[in-house]
């Protein structure tokens, strides 16, 4: 049997994949930034030279845990593009980083390393923004073409 090419075949899919659209930006750019944020969270305590006291160790464990979960979500998005659930997980991770210094307390405000507080707040804001942008791009892609956006 001969295969006939159609505008809806592989060639059209390759052409559509090469044109940047909401899903392409979401799957490539936003996921790449999430991957970088996860790497940053895992390495930040060493790069920012947190002191070796109980409060800094608590902050390091928190950031490393959030970073590992974020890396797993980003890798899952690379392997297979995900829907809104991955965005919700990243949003919750970002909100957690924003409230963690107050919730965990890290040994009290006087004992909490300022580098850890600043890192968690800034990275939390970045994650919340990335999640919201990703959700917006997914919503936009679904409105533009409901068949292709899963």
Automatic annotation (TrEMBL):
Pfam families: SPW
Signal peptide region: none
TM region positions: 29-48, 88-109, 121-141
Source organism superkingdom: Bacteria
Span of domain SPW repeat-containing integral membrane: 31-132
InterPro entries listed in its UniProt record: SPW
Keywords from the UniProt entry: Membrane, Transmembrane, Transmembrane helix
Record-given protein name: SPW repeat-containing integral membrane domain-containing protein
């Amino acid at each position: 049997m001969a295969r006939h090419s159609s505008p809806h075949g592989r060639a059209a899919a390759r052409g559509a994949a090469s044109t940047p659209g909401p899903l392409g930006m979401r799957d490539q750019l936003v996921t790449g930034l999430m991957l970088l944020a996860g790497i940053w969270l895992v390495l930040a305590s060493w790069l920012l030279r947190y002191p070796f006291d109980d409060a800094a160790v608590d902050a390091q464990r928190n950031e490393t845990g959030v970073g590992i979960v974020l890396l797993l979500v980003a890798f899952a998005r690379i392997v297979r593009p995900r829907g809104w659930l991955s965005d919700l997980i990243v949003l919750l991770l970002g909100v957690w980083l924003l409230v963690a210094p107050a919730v965990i307390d890290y040994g009290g405000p006087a004992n909490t390393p300022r580098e850890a507080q600043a890192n968690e707040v800034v990275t939390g804001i970045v994650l919340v923004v990335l999640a919201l942008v990703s959700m917006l791009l997914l919503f936009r892609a679904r409105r533009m073409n409901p068949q292709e956006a899963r």
